What we know:
Layout lengths: L2 H19 L4 E5 L2 E6 L2 H12 L5 E4 L11
Antiparallel strand pairs: 1-2, 1-3
Amino acid sequence: MSNLDVEIAAYGAKREELEASHMGKWVLVHERELIGIFDSFQAAAEDAVRKFGRGPYLIRQVPLPPLAYPRQ
Length: 72
């Protein structure tokens, strides 16, 4: 398993919790740990580079729920 696969699996383990309280936010995961939750990709990337250089790490947006349109 590659380092990035490990980070993706760590995100997956926290996914339900993140979706319950941080929809639309950006998360930074490094070495299986949730490092931070950010309002923008830019903020997450700046923190990641400052702390970990070129990586590897995972920056991912917590998905928003699908939009429901009213039926006509």
